[in-house]
Amino acid sequence: MSSLFSKALVYLGLVDEDEIDADQEPGFNAASSEPSGYQRRGNVDIIPEGRRVEPPPTSRAATRPQARADLPPTGLVTPIEVRADILLVEEFADARVLADRVRARTPVVMDMRQTDSELVRRVVDFASGLIYALDGTMRKVGDGLVLVLPPRVTLNREEKRRLASLGAYELDELD
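User: That's the sequence. What structure does it adopt?
Assistant: Structure tokens below.
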């Protein structure tokens, strides 16, 4: 067992030490086992011009995971009918209410139109960290209005219209 590669295979348990010892006989010469046309200078193989060398096939291509029959197909997202809450932000303690609702997978529209600018900055910073940690989304839906969505939750058109009628969502031409 002379090569580092062989030792690594044995260490990782991919081959038995006996298999490697059986492949390498005491009088084994690496230069004599190469195909014709190859030359060896020191530790470097010289490949003749016009000769194409193919890499060995990988075992990863042959072992692709197969879909299991007992599991439902993935990739299908079922829409969830949700109603968004409107949170009037008056103090920093409202950030905890926001976090609790987002963790409960409830979309929240934060109404910060009458909120002090310093408190707005603190609450938006908190909401940004919350959304980043939970992999949700957050976007401005009007002047002083921010929509916070939990992961994999969206609002349908009817809910957007309901929020717009309450003055908590400004509809775009696309909505």
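The chain has a mean pLDDT of 76.
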